[in-house]
Write a structure and sequence with these properties.
Its EC number is 2.7.7.72. One of its GO terms (biological process) is tRNA processing. The chain is 51% helix and 10% strand. With 509 residues, the protein is of the alpha+beta class. An 8-stranded mixed sheet has the order 1-10-9-2-3-6-5-4. It has a two-stranded antiparallel ribbon with strand order 7-8. Strands 11-12 form a two-stranded parallel sheet. The relative contact order is 0.05.
């Protein structure tokens, strides 16, 4: 089947997208089956798509399901967000949505896009575009087009440049999107040099789609990404951050990170990651920090999937960045050893600086840097010298990050020595059991001094101020060391602290 085919796909039954190009059927038959599947899947999951199209057709306008919606229908992952394109201008689109949609919004109308919501489905409808770019920024001069062909040519990848004309149920593939989808390959409708010059963010999108879909990148696209990586400097940190977050939350996020590093894009996004590729002297053997970090990322994702939880951006960032302080702290020791003393402290500062530069929220910055700082705290527990006090401090210092810290520490075990790996996992199992036991006895989630600030003021006869804060911190430290105290014990400890500080304690000699 020609890539430019415009096939009538009336009827048909749903079929799974073939996993490879090998099989009894010919490629053109497989393409036709996949196209039919996309149409049937769209109409099964989103019957209102045809309903909306009939409304446009009655008004003399074309309507196409387009882009990611078609791709996802082919992959069996179509959601409740649908993208359409039309020859109708935005004001006319608004008129056609009024009376049909439950809600309409026009925040993207300057780009020709209106959004609407009906019966649990969100739709975005964009007028055909034929934009031009100044190739200085990534902002296009928005121009409305008159043909679907022009609109599809300006899209980022061929797998996102397919369309379904509704209500006619015709599949449109002008740029070989279907063969690329069947081959699980990312290529561009125009040349990649033209595409990336127009919008360098598309290079990051290539890595993001590789991470989300597990697709490979066409050779010519890979070459252009290497040659044009410096163009990424035109993109704002906020847009880079959005693509990086989606990449890291993908099922195949390691593949996306490796693509960033291989092409040089990582030098403009997370330069600390390629910076972990340390040269290993034959006399100073140690793990390759970069490969180790990718393995930790993989294992953190495995732990998420085992618990059937949603992708955790904070955990994945921490897994990738937990050892970024190692290059700066590497020291060659006498006898061939290598040390990375305090790399968790240096790494936490580096992570904080990089994530701030990428405009991540304060919460993400604090949580990721906190995990990087804490990731080594567990080591030494297996030697059997942790008291209950040390366990309390571990829990208290981790705070709301404790569950993530559990996963990060477990994922950080990448030794090939199975005996050592089992010992580490058993040690952490034991630590979690101790945490659970102590928590049941003491409510570790709320470790606070046994006296509050108001009681300290009354007992010491002082005004609120620094002295009260210092006393509160002291009692918290005692609480962590000893566990809960009876009130009389806590009061006696407060008075002892006050006397040692030279404070006069009312009623106490």
């Amino acid at each position: 089947m020609s890539p430019s085919a415009h096939d009538d796909l009336q009827g048909g039954t749903a079929a799974q997208l073939p996993a490879s190009s090998h099989g009894a059927s010919r490629p053109e038959e497989r393409e036709r089956d996949a196209q039919r599947n996309a149409v049937v899947e769209v109409l099964r999951l989103a019957p209102l798509a045809e309903e909306l199209a009939e409304r446009f057709a009655a008004a003399g306008h074309q309507l196409y399901l387009v882009g990611g919606s078609v791709r996802d229908a082919l992959l069996g992952r179509l959601g409740t967000d649908l993208d359409f394109t039309t020859d109708a201008r935005p004001d006319r689109v608004r008129e056609l949505l009024d009376g049909w949609a439950e809600t309409v919004w026009d925040t993207g109308i300057e780009f020709g896009t209106l959004g609407a919501y009906r019966h649990g489905t969100t739709v975005e409808i964009t007028t055909f575009r034929a934009d031009s770019y100044d190739r200085v920024t990534r902002n296009p001069d928005v121009e409305f087009g008159d043909t679907l062909d022009g609109d599809l040519l300006r899209r980022d990848f061929t797998v996102n440049a397919m369309a379904i004309e509704l209500p006619q149920r015709r599949f449109v593939d002008r740029h070989g999107g279907m063969p690329d989808l069947l081959a699980r390959r990312l290529d561009t409708p125009a040349t990649p040099e033209e595409s990336f010059a127009d919008d360098p963010l598309r290079m990051l999108r290539a890595a993001r789609f590789a991470a989300q879909l597990g697709f490979a990148v066409a050779d010519r696209v890979l070459a252009a990404m290497r040659d044009m990586a410096d163009e990424l400097a035109r993109i704002t940190p906020e847009r880079v951050q959005a693509e990086l977050s989606k990449l890291l939350c993908g099922t195949h996020s390691r593949r996306g990170v490796e693509l960033l590093v291989e092409t040089g894009l990582a030098d403009h996004v997370l330069p600390e990651v390629p910076g972990m590729r340390l040269a290993i002297d034959e006399h100073h053997q140690h793990k390759d920090v970069y490969e180790h970090s990718l393995t930790v990322l993989d294992q953190a994702i495995d732990l998420e999937q085992a618990e059937q939880t949603e992708p955790d951006l904070v955990l994945r960032l921490a897994a990738l960045l937990h050892d970024i302080g190692k290059p700066a702290t590497r020291r060659f020791e006498p006898g061939g050893g290598v040390s990375f003393h305090h790399h968790e402290v240096v790494g936490a500062k580096m992570a904080r600086k990089r994530l701030r530069a990428l405009r991540y929220s304060k919460e993400v910055v604090n949580d990721v840097s906190g995990l990087v700082y804490l990731h080594l705290r567990f080591h030494g527990y297996g030697e059997g010298n942790w008291t209950d006090s040390a366990v309390r401090r571990y829990v208290t210092d981790a705070g709301h990050l404790l569950e993530r810290l559990h996963k990060l520490v477990r994922a950080d075990c990448t030794t090939r020595n199975k005996r050592k790996a089992r010992a580490l996992q058993r040690a952490y199992d034991e630590l979690e059991e101790r945490i659970a036991r102590i928590a049941a006895e003491e409510d570790l989630a709320k470790v606070r001094p046994d006296l509050d600030g108001n009681e300290i003021v009354r007992l010491l006869g002082v005004e609120p101020g620094p002295v009260v804060g210092e006393a509160w911190k002291h009692l918290k430290e005692v609480r962590l060391d000893r566990g809960p105290m009876e009130r009389d014990e806590a009061v006696a400890e407060l008075y002892r602290w006050a006397r040692d500080r030279g404070l006069d304690v009312p009623g106490v000699d």
